[in-house]
Amino acid sequence: xxxxxxxxxxxxxxxxxxxxxxxxxxxxxxxxxxxxxxxxxxxxxxxxxxxxxxxxxxxxxxxxxxxxxxxxxxxxxxxxxxxxxxxxxxxxxxxxxxxxxxxxxxxxxxxxxxxxxxxxxxxxxxxxxxxxxxxxxxxxxxxxxxxxxxxxxxxxxxxxxxxxxxxxxxxxxxxxxxxxxxxxxxxxxxxxxxxxxxxxxxxxxxxxxxxxxxxxxxxxxxxxxxxxxxxxxxxxxxxxxxxxxxxxxxxxxxxxxxxxxxxxxxxxxxxxxxxxxxxxxxxxxxxxxxxxxxxxxxxxxxxxxxxxxxxxxxxxxxxxxxxxxxxxxxxxxxxxxxxxxxxxxxxxxxxxxxxxxxxxxxxxxxxxxxxxxxxxxxxxxxxxxxxxxxxxxxxxxxxxxxxxxxxxxxxxxxxx
Amino acid sequence: xxxxxxxxxxxxxxxxxxxxxxxxxxxxxxxxxxxxxxxxxxxxxxxxxxxxxxxxxxxxxxxxxxxxxxxxxxxxxxxxxxxxxxxxxxxxxxxxxxxxxxxxxxxxxxxxxxxxxxxxxxxxxxxxxxxxxxxxxxxxxxxxxxxxxxxxxxxxxxxxxxxxxxxxxxxxxxxxxxxxxxxxxxxxxxxxxxxxxxxxxxxxxxxxxxxxxxxxxxxxxxxxxxxxxxxxxxxxxxxxxxxxxxxxxxxxxxxxxxxxxxxxxxxxxxxxx
Lengths: 416, 273
Description:
Chain A is an alpha/beta fold. Chain A has helices at residues 15-19, 44-48, 65-85, 104-120, 136-142, 161-175, 186-199, 312-322, 330-334, 365-371, 388-391, 400-415; strands spanning 4-5, 25-28, 31-34, 54-55, 91-95, 97-98, 101-102, 124-130, 147-152, 179-183, 203-207, 209-212, 219-225, 230-236, 242-246, 263-267, 279-285, 298-302, 325-328, 355-359, 376-381, 394-397. Chain B is of the alpha/beta class and 273 residues long. Chain B folds into 2 domains: 2-221, 3-Layer(aba) Sandwich (Rossmann fold), CATH 3.40.50.620; 240-273. In chain B, the strands form 3 sheets. A 9-stranded mixed β-sheet of chain B has the order 11-10-9-12-8-1-6-7-13, with helices on both faces. In chain B, strand 9 (143-154) and strand 10 (159-166) form a beta hairpin. Chain B is globular and about 75 Å long. Strand 22 of chain A pairs parallel with strand 15 (244-246) of chain B.
């Protein structure tokens, strides 16, 4: 007999497969399977299973001498590995700057990083790369960092993957941080992937929660998975640094403390322009109003309640005032009132703006999956039972043809 | 010119449901599709082929049934498609996946030199955007992510110039070939499969490469063993807090709206620019 696996509880994480000293476990279609001939009932898998999907059905089989040696060997390797891991100290945050302007997510990460350093009893540092950016270090201290690792070079003036990645890889190899955090921006995602691959370590994208597991000190990295249908907590057990990118506007801004002091550690880049193959030719500010729903900070969306194509003009006016983008429910798109590129939801685009106005949208589940992670949801609907009110931050139950014109008027007044 | 496109078979996340009792994904009945961003990568490769000639090969890693996405790629007109499939590849995270795909691309390169690799910007099931850059790093070639337009391809000088979609602006960058691009959906409109290509696709049998096709592959870097990250826990998304219904919407909509707008502006939810 062998270890028993509950298919219902198994989440297919593979920890047991990695742990089994006898290669008795495999993953089949996302569920752990045991080879009874190889299983010795040693119980190593039972201990690591995060969901208690594994159980021993009988006492441990008597192991042969070789098998005992094998288990002993694995325990020793594991101990050596974990001793190696304790050499890594400190939480680092990549300070993302473009022409001297720092992306706010970097400050948010210093706030999140401070909470982690408190639990780990270690230091918080910013990684600052660029050309003539030393003055930013003061801000990094004021937002809570104890140290700034500074690399300045004309090569780093514009962001390019290779020199930025090499700078961080060199810093990391020399100073061995336990954790590196970056914003889940285009730059942060581009850079973190390159750094993690070069360092051969784990990277979790797009986290919305970070914490430290008490007994193991692992960084618990939680993120939405499968289109936001479920949350997954990821750990990186045996490699350091542990790396994560974090969505902007998820973590709170830290308290700004004017005049806070810290230590600047300066390193050379060791690269010249000839070493970098990619050349930045130009930056072009985007004009015009292409539909970028996935990136929109404010979305004004209309549904069946609008009743006609003409009535969408009213939403456009509101969107214009707010600098927002027009979204729509499937009903509105299928009625031909607006193009499919505006469709939010299961069959459309999943969005996560700062503010989502749902106007005349009842909130069918297929729409909700596409927008319920928006920071703030404002719903206007005349039906008090409309499911959209269950996810709304603010709701007005009323006639949208009265409320929307009033909104246009009020926002004009308030925003000048 | 030889272009390699990386494509992944993904569950249609819009169709994924969660079992409310066990908080696990209900996998049954969820249709599998080609990752939408990868479809745009295939399309872009075909456009380049239409313009400059050459060959397009699609490569995918996955279980045997992932052959379906390769068939779809064939229906778009690509020349060949390879599936990397082995039980030993199962459970790979992004680090291990990029290692395996890199091995596959190197093998293709030995057969016919690869000039350009195109990937979708991310896959909709994992949403990591990590595998493309991982391959570029391992091949030691430039990575150009979030590409919204190929501005210029100079086959004589072996350079490529692209527009990258950044927050609120685009960046024009130039890199020598071979290079790896990851593309956003804006880059093109997908074509319809032609009838001859559909027929070709229906009959297509993808070449499958397994672990043994890569004598030099390091078993410590593939599958679960080669994957530093692991899932610790799965739980339902946090529920939204109790909302606030502004009273008086029916009786006095103007007043209710004014209250709402004031709240939004005061709490800086809508910022005064």
